[in-house]
Amino acid sequence: ADATPTPDLAAIEAHLTGPGQPFELEQATIFGHQVTAFKHRPRSLRDVLQRSAAFGHADYMVWQDGRRYTYAEHLTLVANLAANLQAIHGIKPGDRVAILAANCPEWVLSFWAVTSLGAVAVGLNAWWTADEILYGIADCQPALLVADEKRLARLSAEQLAGLSCWVLPIDSDFEAALRDTIAESTDEQAPRALPTTPITEDMPAVMLYTSGTTGRPKAAVHTHGNVGSLLMVSFFHGARLMALHPPAPDSAPNCILVTSPLFHVSGLHCAAVTGLGGGAKTVWTVGGFEPLRVLELIEEERVTGWGYTATMLHRVVNHPRVRKFDLSSLRMMGGGGSPIPAPLQDQALELVPQVRETM
């Protein structure tokens, strides 16, 4: 297809990036280089988190196990966790905090708490074996390891004792402690505030590991500026599409189904971070991929968007009960990781023809 912007699209982009507009451009110096950047970009992930207070009691996270979190509740829990990490574990800017767990609310809470302190959230692959876990910990040298019980069970008592960092288990007491802190406050007390330690956009925020196809996995470092720019590009793309194809006045708010792991950019950057930045509801599966549960969640939560791999899409569209579910809420779908065969795309579009222009 011709990728040249149409005159209409070119005009839309010129308007959105013009003076005084949300996506106004400017020249900025990043790591000593002059680059074109969005003028109104967030300077840190904490900026993004603070702005989420505007979404109040709207849902931020809905989990397959029944747990739900509003934006206001999430912000309070993150502020409490950040204070605990600072006071109890001494986490400070630049420290690395490794997170080793399956997708769960505590993973997301830990990520936001760590980055709001100016520390670096390190996503360790939850599928790693004991040898790979020990390699990752030795490589990133964290001050703290936040890990669920299943992952910790992969390490022997001797291996755990030999770790050079503190370990904070994700167990039944993890979230309870955060909520107990909230319950102890009185109506007269102000909610605990987020940290105020200065954070600049060139500071590291995230480390995620590659797959290790050419040797050991390697940690890719993402700065606060990297992730903030990703947010702005995502929102700019959304704004230009909305201008080209204005949504109906009664369109439901964005609701994103997440079936990707948080230790990967698809689950972390493109769901947990982008979802929070845009005030969307994110719906999360738990454990192994179950196509029937995916169909149930789309119908129950009125999911509007889903990002998948080819295998996931194949399993959903070929499920024997797929036509029993109401999938009419979907309006944005897309996949990656490997080519999506044209016959599979056609099969999906037969089920959800309303997403033809966005798939």
How would you concisely characterize the structure shown here?
The protein has 359 residues and is of the alpha/beta class.
List keywords for this structure.
359 residues; alpha/beta; six-stranded mixed β-sheet
Order of helices and strands: HEEHEEHEHEHEHHEHEEHEHEHEHEH
Beta-strand content estimate: 15-25%
Show unreliable segments. Answer: none
- Average of the residue pLDDT scores: 92
- Characterize the biggest β-sheet: 6 strands, mixed
User: Structural class given helices, strands, pairing?
Assistant: alpha/beta
How many individual helices? 13
Straight-line distance between termini: 14 Å
Strand order of the largest sheet: 4-3-12-11-13-14
Shape assignment? globular
Global Rg: 21 Å
Helix content: 25-40%
Number of strands: 14
Report on this model:
Helix 10 (268-278) links the parallel strand 11 (255-258) and strand 12 (281-284). The model has no long low-confidence stretch (mean pLDDT 92). Helix 12 (310-317) packs across helix 13. With 359 residues, the chain is of the alpha/beta class. It contains 13 helices and 14 strands. 33% of the residues are buried.
